[in-house]
């Protein structure tokens, strides 16, 4: 897990994780949290409320992708030869009480597969596996559903898959690293499957923020869209080259052009 200035949200995620029930006998869950320069007391609050959580403090230059690499490294160092799976968990996900049991049951059926947990906000799926050229959300259907890649909110990765695919690539400090990881897994012949039902709650990111905030002007919109939080050009180009084939040059420029047009027309 990685956190930054979402103390209450992070504590809620950890409390839900601690409530997990119906786990297979002998299951041991260890939590590794990277707190990326929070100024709202997240790290201290976690240590008080959840003393069993391994908390590592970094500065605020660490974003989600980098934080998840650090957390993975720390978990592997502590787990030694014993660990069987890694779970990616966003700090804004409140898991259902039997979420881990659902994921592990799916993993037992398909031991080589990465299992993705879809999450909801109300009745609507917000994050899940992704499929097709448009990377559409994969809805839970009551059975395991294949996907091409995935959002990184809830992802259970067997050790064998982690050893073959690795962690979130260092070229993606924040976004795109989860999609890239899923596509790399697919190229390595490792299936990704969405669990039969939703495993928790997670709100969708607000739609008209960042570079999409109305009235900020073209220059500010472009500054935001090219920042680490959105689509930094170097990372975006790597992603396009890897996964877009001949469409890479067009895909590379399209979000920046669309951002400028949208800001310039006030949309």
Automatic annotation (TrEMBL):
Signal peptide: none annotated. Residues 1-133 form the Glycosyltransferase 2-like domain. One of its GO terms (molecular function) is transferase activity. InterPro entries: Glyco_trans_2-like, Nucleotide-diphossugar_trans. Pfam families: Glycos_transf_2. It comes from the Bacteria. Keywords: Transferase. PANTHER family: RHAMNOSYLTRANSFERASE WBBL. This is Glycosyltransferase family 2 protein. It comes from Streptomyces mesophilus. The lineage of its organism: Bacteria, Bacillati, Actinomycetota, Actinomycetes, Kitasatosporales.
